[in-house]
Design a protein that fits this description.
Layout: H1 2-25, E1 38-40, E2 46-48, E3 56-62, H2 67-82, E4 87-95, H3 100-108, E5 115-119, H4 127-131, E6 139-143, E7 149-151, H5 155-163
Parallel strand pairs: 3-4, 4-5
Antiparallel strand pairs: 1-2, 3-6, 6-7
Length: about 160
């Protein structure tokens, strides 16, 4: 019985490692075209990432259950208020329960149109998160007006870039 448990544990561990590696190494890299996706926004309208070409786009992967995500929300709201004409913010809430994020987003002041709530039992297995190799949240990806992935940047780095515009 002990051997079965050990082999089962080893198999699960290997599956997790292989899944993580597959997601990380098959995700888009800086300088490449940002992976396009289509989904439905929380207001019920359809959304396609490539429709936002021509502006900088910030994809922000977060969760209402994630303390570091909650801590940086004021910086995200401030960035939106500071550069409303220069950047489009797309928030992607990775949730197990699709009711909690709404309370947090409303309280935090998410006033932008492009909000996505992606419910999945295993939150990081969201199809959108996998395209970008998200292995932890919060994760932010900046996309150029040409649709190229600039990379994972901090709010300070994004602010510096947008100040130059």
């Amino acid at each position: 019985m002990k051997k079965i448990f050990q082999y089962s544990f080893l198999a699960i561990f290997l599956i997790i490692i292989l899944s993580y590696s597959y997601i990380k190494y098959n995700a888009a890299s800086n300088g490449n075209q940002a992976p396009d996706f289509e989904t439905t926004l929380v207001d019920g309208s359809s959304f396609k990432l490539s429709d936002l070409r021509g502006k900088y786009v910030l994809l922000d992967f977060w969760g209402s259950w994630c303390p570091p995500c909650l801590k940086e929300i004021p910086e995200l709201v401030e960035l939106h208020q500071k550069y409303p004409e220069n950047i489009v913010i797309v928030t992607i809430a990775l949730e197990k329960n699709d009711k909690t994020w709404k309370k947090v987003a409303d309280k935090a002041g998410f006033t932008w149109k492009h909000q996505i709530a992606n419910q999945n039992r295993f939150v990081l297995m969201s199809s959108i998160a996998r395209k970008y190799g998200v292995s932890e949240i919060p994760s932010k990806f900046l996309i150029s007006p040409e649709g190229k992935l600039i990379g994972k940047l901090s709010f300070k780095e994004i602010d510096k870039l947008l100040t130059k515009l």
